[in-house]
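The authors assume throughout that readers already know how a fold can be written as discrete tokens. In essence, backbone conformation is discretised, so a fold becomes a row of integers matching the chain in length. A single example would do more here than another paragraph of explanation. For illustration, here is how one protein appears when written out as sequence plus structure tokens:

…
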Amino acid sequence: MKILLVEDDKTIASGLDYSLKQDGYETIVCHNAEDAKRVIVDNLESVKLCLFDLSLPDGSGYELCELVKKQSDKPVIFLTALDDEVNVVMGLDMGADDYITKPFRLRELLSRIKSVLRRYHKQQTTQPKNVIDIENIRINVLEGKVYKNGEEVLLTSLEYRLFLIFANHIGQVLTRTQLLDRIWDVAGDFVNDNTLTVYIKRLREKLEDEPQNPKIIKTIRGMGYKVGD
């Protein structure tokens, strides 16, 4: 299980390299964007996960993430000293799978790595589901219908498509930009930010027991929304 670690602080990089190896991972360590780009172009196929520091002396983790995602759907976790919602959301919009803010506990980082790898493994090995259960909600994909406590809930086509996007990304934070892009891709209709707010509200009113205190479509403040854990 090989991890590409890009961190310009050599002391931090050395400590992470040692800890990752102790936990059974192989590592490729780079201290700048130029070396990392070379690895991504030449050896990305052998890498299972990327850990990118956001601020590098000759570039940023953003551009490395973009390069990775253009080549292959490999998981990316950002390491950032910038505890800033704008930077976090930007990273998620670019396709990053998670982020962790420095200083962090090593156990937390290892837990995040395992969680992301499990999610990717599940996505790759699980066949598309015909029935998806979330709390007391059931989606019958073949019928294109949604049920709450066994009773059909009537959704518009766009409401259904939006909820299906959430259902196919259980436990993953989806930013508003990601949701808008995916609705556009699927529907071919123009959906603006205000319209998305309305549809989220309508879904909650139809699916939640307490729409003002949602348990299914949860708001992750400053980042987006998440369904499931």
